[in-house]
């Protein structure tokens, strides 16, 4: 079923995984809410190009929580639809840089 969501919304990004659909009341209106996570595997730091290698048994990049973004989508059967996308946050131990995963969807 979750793959059908990808097809219906025409989302091409393979790093987005869907976890379900719920109905919630948002601002007094019943809304379809699609829950998804964006967590790509990274090869280099976007700031200075550090590689994600193991140093002293520790990875250079550390997953550092998630940021929830709400994306408004087209209504489905006249019901408002949004996607709550949990975007992975990262930390580079080599250059002390923090960043959030990004996608062309947002």
Name its key features.
single chain; 106 residues; mainly beta; 5-stranded mixed sheet; two-stranded antiparallel sheet; 8% helix; elongated; Transposase family protein; Transposase_Znf
Question: How would you describe the overall organization of this protein?
Answer:
Helix content is 8%, strand content 56%. With 106 residues, the protein is mainly β. It has one domain. Strand 3 (54-55) and strand 4 form a beta hairpin. It is elongated, with a radius of gyration of 17 Å.
Percentage of β-strand residues: over 45%
Oligomer: single chain
Number of helices: 1
- Number of beta-strand segments: 7
Residue share in helices?
A: under 10%
- How many distinct folded domains? 1
Q: What string, H for helix and E for strand, traces the elements in order?
A: HEEEEEEE
In angstroms, what is the radius of gyration? 17 Å
Organism: Candidatus Enterococcus avicola
Protein name: Transposase family protein
Pfam family, one: Zn_ribbon_ISL3
Domain Transposase IS204/IS1001/IS1096/IS1165 zinc-finger: 57-95
Explain the layout of strands and helices.
Elements: H1 2-9, E1 16-26, E2 29-38, E3 54-55, E4 58-59, E5 61-76, E6 79-92, E7 97-100
